Structure formats: C-alpha cells, structure tokens
Amino acid sequence: MKELIQLIAGYEQAKAKGQAMALATVVQVDGSAYRRPGARMLVTQEGRLTGAISGGCLEGDALRKAQTVIFQQKPMLVTYDTTDEDDQKFGIGLGCNGIIHLLIEPIDLNQADHPIELIRQALANRELALLVTIFSLKTAQSEQVGTIYLRQGNQEFGSFQKIPSDYRAAIAQEVNSFEESKNRIHCYPELGELSVFFELIPPPVRILLFGAGNDALPVAQLAEILGHELHLIDGRKALANLTRFPSASKIIKGPADEVVEQLETDLHTVALLMTHNFDYELRVLEELTTRMLPYIGILGPKRKTDKLIHRLEEKGIRVFRDALYAPI
C-alpha cells in the first residue's frame, strides 16, 4: 500500500514538471520471482524510478523499454525468463527461477481515467476496490489493452470500450460476482487470447494506537514503514504530539470518555491498547466492543485482559474474545 502512495506522489512530481511517464506493472508470474503480480514502477522520461518490479535486476532493462513506450505512446508487454541459465543478459544473475510478464503503459495526462488516476481513485476512499488490467501473452508483440477499469462499491471508473463486446459481457459478469479475497488472473480461451488481471486494492490498515509512551514510539515507526495509517490516542498532551509521533495522520487527546467519541473505525481498522492505564483502557475497550474490528491487541499480562473483560461483564457488556489478542 505504501508503494502505491509513493507511486502517486512520484506521478504528481513528474506531472508538475511536465514530464512524460510510463507505468510498469507485473501482471503475471510463472514460477519464482522477487515481486508478485501488482508490483509497479513509475518511469519518467528523464529516467526517474518510483517503485520496484524486482529485486533490482530488471529495473535497468525495464527503464529502457519504458522510455520506448513513452516515445511510441503504446502499451507494451515484456517477458523476462529467469529460468534461462544465461541470465547474465539482464545485467546480473537474477537468482530467480520464474517467468515475469511486465506490462508497460504510457500515462496520457489528457486521459481522465489513465492507470495512475484509477489507482488514485482506489485510494481515495476507505473501501475495497477492484482494478482490472487486460493483456495478451499470445499476441505479446501487438499493442496491449492495459489498465482500464476500477470498481469500488457501487462506483465504476473507466470502461471496457477498448475490448471486443463479447469480452465485455464476460468480464463484467466476473466483476459483479467477484468475491475472492486475493488477486487472480483469468483467461477466456473460448473468446480468444486475452488475459485479465483482477487486482484487489484494500485501503491502508488504520491503527488506533492508544498510548503515547516511549514503548509506542517504535510501534509508530513500524506502522510508517509498513504504510499503515496511524491514529494516536492518549490523555497526556505532553506526550501525544507530532514532535514525538510525526507519522501520525491524526492525534486525539483527552479523557477516555471524550476520545472514544472521536474514533474512526471500519473493517480495516485495528486497535492497540498501550496506555498502561487500566481505567482508561477499560473505557476504551467498552467502546471497541461495539465496533467490528478484526484485531484488538492489549499490552500486558493475560490476567490484565481477564480483569478488563470481567469488569465489562459485570456491567452487562459481552466481549467477543475472537478479536482480542492478549498479550498483544
């Protein structure tokens, strides 16, 4: 997720400078490779790279091909066969044993729904999005279709107008019934040679970090490295600030009764209770039991969590333990 955010930032910088760009996307991997389908790299006409498509082995060659795509303004499919023992042709030994198919698309700034804009839209709302990219291995030398459609909730962006009508119906049906929890590639042999990469783009994980003590500092740093969205919550104003937690996108300060009214949660939100304040966490946990969170981590010994649950049950509040992880 962090890589997609960096990709958009790199795009904005290049756009501000009026630079032409191309987007390289790993669309299919057969065998072993450093990156899986969905890995991306943005290339500018000046050769600036944002993101990565391998462990550093393919970037040089992909850069040269991307600049060709920028010049020709036509999508290109490139295949790297790292099962070939003569992998020195890519510059260094790859250390892989797979075949990587890379789609390189020009970014047309005059087009409202080009691939980067579709990705931007996917990240604009905290809702799972489905991105559709179409390519053909059988006609790899021909111009490719590319990333053309995004579905997020009831909203649609882009279209299937670039592909034959018989494909449109089949892919639309697939989109409407897509319920899988992971990416997949679908071929339609009865229709022809096209392959479709269905890619799920979830919103970044939001971490509600309760506690601004010194032990919360490395947790915040890890959240930033992983590209998570951090909300810091604490009653101690001297500790809960941007100087100590510069990566926090939101800081909520105040008594427990006040902060619980300001919590923003969804199915992609997790909570970490690290305040070292039993009464504070008791009130917080009381509120969190009413939210559909997949993970609530509680710092401290198991007996502390048992005591918290016991206090809540005495108040007639039922606590579902499936989402509780204690010790954290």
Furnish the topology, listing elements before pairings.
Elements: H1 2-16, E1 21-31, E2 40-44, E3 49-51, H2 59-72, E4 76-81, E5 98-107, H3 115-124, E6 129-135, E7 146-152, E8 155-158, H4 165-176, E9 184-187, E10 195-201, E11 206-210, H5 217-226, E12 229-234, E13 250-253, H6 256-259, E14 269-273, H7 278-288, E15 295-298, H8 302-314, E16 324-325
Parallel strand pairs: 11-12, 11-14, 12-13, 14-15, 15-16
Antiparallel strand pairs: 1-2, 1-5, 2-3, 4-5, 6-7, 6-10, 7-8, 9-10
Helix pairs in contact: 1-3, 7-8
- Class by helix and strand content? alpha/beta
- How much helical structure, as a percent, in the residues? 25-40%
Low-pLDDT stretches are none
Number of helices: 8
* N to C succession of SSEs: HEEEHEEHEEEHEEEHEEHEHEHE
Mean residue pLDDT:
91
Query: Which value, in Å, is the CA radius of gyration?
Result: 24 Å
Spatial strand order of the main sheet:
13-12-11-14-15-16
Strand content: 25-35%
**Could you tell me how far the N terminus lies from the C terminus, measured between alpha carbons in angstroms?**
24 Å
Q: Describe the main β-sheet briefly.
A: 6 strands, parallel
How many β-strand runs? 16
How would the global form be characterised?
Answer: elongated
